Please model this.
Amino acid sequence: MLAFYSLGNDFGTNRMTIADSVDTELLAGWRRDTPGCAHRNHLNNAGAALMPRPVIDAITEHTWLEAETGGYEAADARADAIERGYDALGEIVGARPANIAVVGSATAGFIQALSSFDFSPGDTIVTTRCDYTSNQIQYLALATRLGVEIVHAADLPEGGVDPASVREIIRARRPRLVAVSWIPTNSGLVQDVEAVGAVCEEAGVPYVVDACQAVGQLPIDVSRLRCDYLSATARKFMRGPRGIGFMYASDRALARGDHPLFVDMRGARWTSATTYEVAETARRYEDWEFPYALVLGQAAAARYALDVGVELAQARAWSLAATLRDALGAILGVRVLDRGATRCAIVTVEIARQHATEIVSALAARRINVVASLREFGIYDFEAKGVHSAVRLSPHYYNTEAEIGEAVAALCEIIAATP
Model:
């Protein structure tokens, strides 16, 4: 006994926003720039978005240049273009190029930020119940190896970290730092990182923001966040390649002399047999060895996102996600799991009597890309919701209303075929 959501020609027309007014030719241009659109209904942008041609071209052109001239020589030849990439990355988060470091991933940047602090037994890190999986594991490793205490702030009734709880913990524990994932991987929740930043600034506590799922999906101004550090990736909503990311280090952090525990020869100079001197800029967080093709691809992705307009990308992606969330919520046997006062372009649902991996495989057979989110990716969140797995769907601005309808219809068919 299955209730099907109506998929007529008026699908989603109840949601008229800026996203619905996107010029048809503009949308067609984005899709022409995206070769993968011809082959797949890609609703896994929270995993890795489809790259547009300028990103693909930047990567392949540099790879060929390395093949023809040598890796070091190719980097020297493209030094100006590599340098200009910092301008684009800085612009997309509202920072000066000097405050940007290129790193291997958002997680790598997050680790570099954490390693700036010399933790001692009894030091406290305050985080949330919806922090990213790898971050939670790193906290536990610090607790096990160094005796650091991890305190999770309480959630608001509607979901998402309660800034008042962070304030209370700071007053009671005087933590070494506060760290928050802006958007968790396992939910469409958008946490109020700006409010938490105000609390941290008032108390003088260092603040780290994981913006892995936010960059390219949300307009970012690090001055409004008041964060000491922010980490980001290329591959998700910014539509860059896998294996590269970037981080922001504030003037305040740089002035403190913060630098990573294992500073590399790009980040510091060996000045005598017993001394070293860290770089003046955020490049103290960089490694010597770079995949320069990916570095240039990331820069191209940042420029493409800026040309599209992050505000427009957000409006369209969030509108498509809201339509998808409403449609899936109307299907018998489907439970929408997203909470919070603000929800983004990530939609998570539980399908009754079926594990998420089975649904993902069935949709992949129909050339629809989604991903499974498992309990181990968000233990606190999933235990509170009483689920073991969820299907995660994440549209972006280049997706179409027809693709949303196709995914909903396919899920209806898959559920109807379940014994």
Notes: Residues 55-307 form a domain with the Aspartate Aminotransferase; domain 2 fold (CATH 3.40.640.10). The first helix runs from residue 24 to 32. DSSP finds 15 helices and 15 strands in the chain.
